[in-house]
Amino acid sequence: MTGTLDGDPALLVLLAVVLGGLGLAVGSFLNVVIYRVPDGESVIRPASACPACHTPIAARDNIPIVSWLLLRGRCRACGARISARYAVVEAVTAVVWLGLGWWALAAEQLSLLPWLLVLGSACVALTFIDLEHHRLPDAIVFPLYPVGVLGLALAGILGGAWPLADAGIGIAIWLVVIGGLWLISGGRGMGFGDVKLAPILGATLGWVGVAAAAVGLFAAFALAAVVGIVLMAARRAGRRSHIPFGPFLVVGAAVGLVAGQAIWEAYTQALSGP
Predict the structure, then answer these.
(1) pTM value?
(2) d(Cα 62, Cα 13) in Å, to the nearest integer?
(3) How many Cβ atoms are within 10 Å of 150's Cβ, its own excluded?
């Protein structure tokens, strides 16, 4: 599963439709996860219902994005406003699935795609939860450890390559930096949820390459610094304001995955001079 589909546009279109459609469906489920997991509720039962009147949502009103648009963001039963976040989560998840599919094809890493889709979906949920609740629930993070081992093992079996040393280096880079900041700051500069997520992201990026892991971690801090400066300049935050770092870890990891090797090569060439 390391080849590409460049020679068959029809298959590319089909893959895009399948990934996009599945991404929308997964995004609909992630809305349940984002809403219930922070409160310790089951994501299976009861069935989805209006938060205001608790009327169960009919199948026709549960079509990703389309139903929200047709209902104009309101409950059919009581007319209560339904947050646009539901449609945003569905759209973002579809984009994430399409983006990961595109990267896997371009990088000839289709064997890694199943795990990336699982991790990407979990990261969407973690990002929205962290933005709202300022925490990364163990109920989502901890299952990623065994699933990640299975996902990387599947990638090794299908792809025929086992970059375990690079994955280990990726774990070390992310865990030492994130865990070190947590220890030094006494938990004030970095949440422990970030520490628990770090090895998962580090291992995945390291599997792709040490450059991806290093650039991804640097990108996370660079993005956090830029956003922090912008928020302070706009007087939306102060030096002691708590800004969730999980979303920056996720976006930084995405940068490392997609462009880590290219950024690293450009950096080393710049250092070596003309």
Answers:
(1) 0.92
(2) 25
(3) 12
